[in-house]
Design goal:
The protein contains six helices and 40 strands. By secondary structure, it is mainly beta. The strands form eleven sheets. A four-stranded antiparallel beta sheet has the order 3-2-1-36, with no helix packed on it. The chain has a four-stranded antiparallel beta sheet with strand order 4-5-6-7, with no helix packed on it. A four-stranded antiparallel beta sheet has the order 8-9-10-11, with no helix packed on it. A hairpin with a 2-residue loop joins strand 1 and strand 2. Helix 4 crosses helix 5 and helix 4 packs antiparallel against helix 6. The protein starts with 8 loop residues before the first strand and ends with a helix. About 12% of the residues have low confidence.
Length: 618
């Protein structure tokens, strides 16, 4: 790397937490022996602080914080059930969240599950009950002068005063946002605050923007209403003067998509609001702000999807054409952009120079589940991780010209769960120079998928089979040869079968229908060539198994339930979704065309597995 600084990688796996380092550009990454590897098999989370000074992780027993300069542990918090970790914007505090549970045997049934710790002293300064699994964290102002927390249908605001105790009571409340959301801008204080309120009884959904502390209903700076929005994702640019609203529905009432409909809206702190106009039909796959805060990119439409760059007036300023893409990744300086085609797509990667609006290169990184740019801005990693993919785990480091610089295959029977670049304070690196020449890399040791055309076993000895030629109609009916006999040999039974088929062709439809009717009424079907009978079994009957030559029915396993009906209901719903995803995967493997929303549903498998794991662990 041009700066002489090579960020380290923090890795979380099924065998613990470790840190890997490299001694310089194009040198391999190896485990850092200065970091004492955590050998716990229950590590659920790992995170760097925004200023790059600390690394924190939860190992199933404690939450630990170490300093990156010497990798020495500074604090330990007794939070064995911690599931999520997140630092505040200035790295002053660490938030920990665990799945909310109630024990009927405890005297105090409702106990806090969201905690805030002071990083310097290690003291717990705040705790509260937060039952929300998504959007669980506190929303902080960039200078940590206040934070907002959504509990139930109410948003609570806490103000931080210099040289005073940490606040335990909110100074402001904003109600009426049940099943909605809140987002605080990352710009200068006092910050802007956006509230999403879902529609009900025919009323539209609404997003309103306020300037704190003026939160009265008649004082919004900007507002946007929209129908068909069961969910809304709010995305601020880094300057905090623009807000994107990605809306989605669970079901598309127009019937165009089976699983839902998406739309994109834009609001500014000057009071403007727009609906982002996309010039083709289909779902929105990805939206991302440029770190420069002056433009944003959208990937949308049926595959091959389109990609468009918009300015702050929602005018399209550049078209990237079409491609197999469903994700967007900017580097920290906004001069390089990656389009990825992951999940149900086979790992397409396009790298663009945004200064000149030119594609640098394209290649494939199959089975990618994670991608992240280095803070230096000229290289990135791709990783294959569990639980999305439990086989062939590992990570690769790539140069922005497409050269492979490093490759690590994770040991078999172990799972790589997470990879993260070391963070640095803002201003540490200057904008990287985009190379015009391709860097020489290494050859990948990952086995390549065979490009040979698949040929069914019964056609493999035919001329042209496997060579890419299309077999003729006569060769299509050829049978697999019997071992030891010449190709094309047919047994007496096969010849009789052929003669019988020829006779059947000359028979009338009435005779054919009569045979079908008798077969159905008798409840049996003739097997081709063999003359054997098999019992008619309805599709709903369980699959039989053969034990010592006798057929037995597979017994149904009893369903395990807990003492929490609400938890059982969530588990049941997730299992149903996973079953649907399995069916979609089978369709995809058979080559059937899927809707984009079906593809999106398949890509949600990892999140569902993680949520299911969290419920079972509680």
């Amino acid at each position: 790397m041009a700066t002489g600084i090579t960020p380290a990688l923090a890795l979380r796996s099924s065998t613990g937490v470790e840190v890997w380092k490299s001694n310089g550009f194009k040198t391999p990454f190896i485990p850092d022996t200065e970091f004492v590897r955590d050998e716990s098999k229950l590590c659920r989370a790992i995170v760097y602080s925004p200023n790059g000074r600390f690394l924190a992780w939860a190992n199933g027993s404690t939450v630990q914080i170490c300093t990156v300069s010497d990798w020495k542990v500074q604090q330990k918090f007794p939070r064995p059930k911690a599931f999520y970790l997140k630092f505040t914007p200035r790295s002053t505090y660490l938030m920990t969240w665990e799945i909310y549970t109630e024990n009927p045997k405890d005297e105090i049934k409702e106990k806090p599950n969201l905690f805030l710790y002071d990083v310097a002293s290690g003291k717990e300064v705040f705790s509260i009950i937060q039952k929300r699994h998504a959007d669980w964290e506190m929303h902080w102002a960039a200078d940590e002068s206040l934070f907002a927390l959504m509990v139930g249908g109410e948003v609570l605001f806490y103000e931080m005063q210099p040289n005073s105790e940490f606040p335990t009571k909110p100074v402001k409340r904003f109600g009426g946002v049940r099943n909605g959301g809140v987002s605080v801008s990352p710009g200068p204080s006092p910050p802007f605050v956006a509230f999403y309120v879902p529609g009900s009884k025919g009323a539209p959904s609404m997003c309103r923007m306020f300037r704190y502390p003026n939160l009265e209903s008649n004082q919004p700076i900007a507002s946007k209403s929209f129908f068909q929005a069961d969910k809304v994702e709010m995305m601020w640019n880094q300057k905090g003067n623009g807000l994107l609203l990605l809306t989605s529905t669970d079901v598309d009432q127009t019937g165009v998509s089976y699983y839902g409909k998406t739309a994109l809206h834009f609001m500014t702190t000057k009071g403007d609001s727009f609906a982002v106009q996309l010039n083709t039909e289909g779902s929105i796959h990805a939206v991302a702000w440029s770190p420069r805060s002056t433009e944003f990119c959208v990937v949308y439409g049926f595959m091959p999807s389109k990609a468009t760059l918009f300015n702050l007036k929602c005018d399209a300023v550049f078209e990237f054409g079409t491609g197999n893409r469903n994700s967007i990744y900017y580097n920290n300086f906004g001069n390089l952009l990656i389009f990825g085609g992951f999940g149900n797509l086979p790992g397409y990667i396009e790298i663009w120079d945004l200064n000149e609006k030119k594609k640098i290169t394209e290649h494939k990184a199959p089975d990618t589940t994670l991608l992240e740019w280095s803070p230096v801005g000229d290289v990135f990693f791709t990783a294959t991780t569990a639980p999305r993919l439990r086989m062939s785990n590992g990570f690769k480091i790539w140069h922005h010209t497409g050269a492979l610089l490093h490759e690590t295959h994770w040991p078999e029977k172990q799972e790589l769960l997470e990879v993260s670049w070391q963070k640095y304070a803002p201003g540490t690196f200057k904008e990287n120079v985009i190379s015009k020449e391709k860097i020489e890399g290494i050859a990948s040791r990952t086995p390549q998928a065979s490009k040979q055309k698949y040929v069914p076993p019964g056609m493999r000895n035919n001329s042209g089979a496997g060579s890419g030629e299309t077999p003729t109609s006569s060769s299509t009916t050829a049978r697999a040869p019997i071992p030891g006999l010449p190709p094309g040999y047919r047994s007496t039974a096969q010849l009789k079968d052929k003669k019988q088929k020829n006779k059947n062709k000359n028979k009338t439809n009435e005779s054919a229908n009569g045979q079908n009717d008798r077969a159905i009424s008798a409840g049996v079907n003739d097997t081709a060539g063999g003359g054997q009978k098999k019992k008619f079994r309805p599709k709903s009957a369980p699959n039989p198994q053969s034990v010592d030559g006798e057929t037995v029915e597979t017994p149904k396993r009893p369903q395990a339930t807990s003492k929490d009906p609400e938890k059982d209901k969530k588990v049941k719903n997730i299992n149903k979704k996973l079953k649907d995803i399995k069916l979609l995967k089978e369709k995809n493997d058979r080559g059937e065309k899927l809707e984009l929303t079906q593809i999106a549903k398949m890509n949600s498998e990892a999140d569902l597995l993680k949520e299911l794991k969290a419920l079972k662990a509680s």
